[in-house]
């Protein structure tokens, strides 16, 4: 059911073949506002959780983007592609004999080595910027380059199933990782390590921070106005410790003034009467507002 809420969040189950910006454009029309953003891009081929913030909700998106994420994916061993996924031009393929020499134990051992904090090279066909330009745009212009590695943490990398056919080996995996991790790079690096090439054939994001597919609406439901947004305070409660403040403290926050120190060093949401008033952080012995949502006019 649609609402007249001007600030909040939507969890959308992105359909394949769409960019994240396409979904934002649909949400702008559905919500009748231009102020809509998302917490982390999904590739056009990918499906799954896309967190949208609108109105003042956009100010919390950075904290959601920084959270860890979970995925289901299918790695295809036997061919490498320019984009490290099924949509890119094939660069090399492995022979049936070479593939047959790759055992399940070898695949498991290779993926096990990617678990933990590692240095990962992003795909060249990605949204990473180089000198102010997206890497994928430079690839389309004919440039050949490798992006520098970055430190990421992969806390879960489990094999669900391994399937074999004459020209490839398909490996279904489940991954939980830090922000900035490329699942396509896992496929590429697994194929490279096994000397057979690898790319991603399917990808679904199942969780972003505390938000899951069970909370999501479909793109069709979004188009039809069949959705119920999450409020800012609901989302704040899911990602921050909460400090309930009284009337005097609430008034101070509307002027952007500091309060006595929080009991935690984490960013804390200040809430009064079910409304998020501000985000607080301990600085120089006081809880200083770093974002105020109910300012005094």
Automatic annotation (TrEMBL):
Keywords: Isomerase, tRNA processing. SUPFAM superfamilies: Pseudouridine synthase, PUA domain-like. Residues 28-183 form the Pseudouridine synthase II N-terminal domain. GO terms for biological process: mRNA pseudouridine synthesis; tRNA modification. InterPro entries: PsdUridine_synth_cat_dom_sf, PsdUridine_synth_N, PUA-like_sf, PUA_sf, tRNA_psdUridine_synth_fam2_C, tRNA_psdUridine_synth_TruB. One of its GO terms (molecular function) is tRNA pseudouridine(55) synthase activity. It is an enzyme of class 5 (isomerase). Residues 240-293 form the tRNA pseudouridine synthase II TruB subfamily 2 C-terminal domain. HAMAP family: TruB_bact. This is tRNA pseudouridine(55) synthase.
């Amino acid at each position: 059911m649609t609402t007249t809420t001007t600030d909040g969040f939507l969890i959308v189950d992105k359909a394949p073949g769409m960019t994240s910006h396409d979904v934002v454009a649909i949400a702008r029309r559905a919500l009748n506002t231009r102020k809509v953003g998302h917490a982390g891009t999904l590739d056009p081929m990918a499906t799954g959780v896309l967190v949208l913030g609108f109105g003042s909700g956009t100010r919390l998106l950075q904290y959601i983007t920084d959270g860890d994420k979970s995925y289901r994916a299918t790695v295809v061993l036997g061919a490498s592609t320019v984009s490290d996924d099924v949509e890119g031009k094939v660069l090399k393929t492995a022979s049936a004999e070479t593939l047959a020499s790759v055992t399940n134990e070898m695949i498991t051992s290779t993926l096990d080595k990617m678990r933990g904090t590692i240095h990962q090279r992003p795909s060249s066909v990605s949204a990473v910027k180089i000198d102010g330009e997206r890497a994928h745009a430079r690839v389309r212009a004919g440039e050949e380059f490798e992006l520098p590695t970055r430190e990421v943490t992969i806390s879960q990398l489990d094999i669900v199933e391994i399937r074999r056919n004459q020209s490839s080996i398909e490996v279904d995996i489940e991954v939980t990782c830090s922000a900035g991790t490329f699942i396509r790079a896992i496929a590429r690096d697994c194929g490279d390590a096994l000397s057979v090439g690898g790319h991603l054939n399917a990808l679904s994001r199942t969780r972003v921070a505390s938000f899951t597919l069970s909370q999501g609406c479909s793109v069709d439901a979004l188009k039809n106005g069949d959705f119920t947004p999450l409020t800012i305070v609901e989302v704040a409660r899911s990602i921050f410790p909460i400090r309930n403040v009284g009337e005097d403290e609430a008034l101070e926050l509307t002027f952007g003034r500091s309060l006595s120190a929080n009991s935690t060093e984490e960013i804390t949401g200040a809430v009064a009467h079910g409304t998020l008033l501000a985000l607080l952080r301990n600085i120089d012995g006081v809880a200083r507002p770093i974002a105020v949502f109910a300012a005094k006019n």
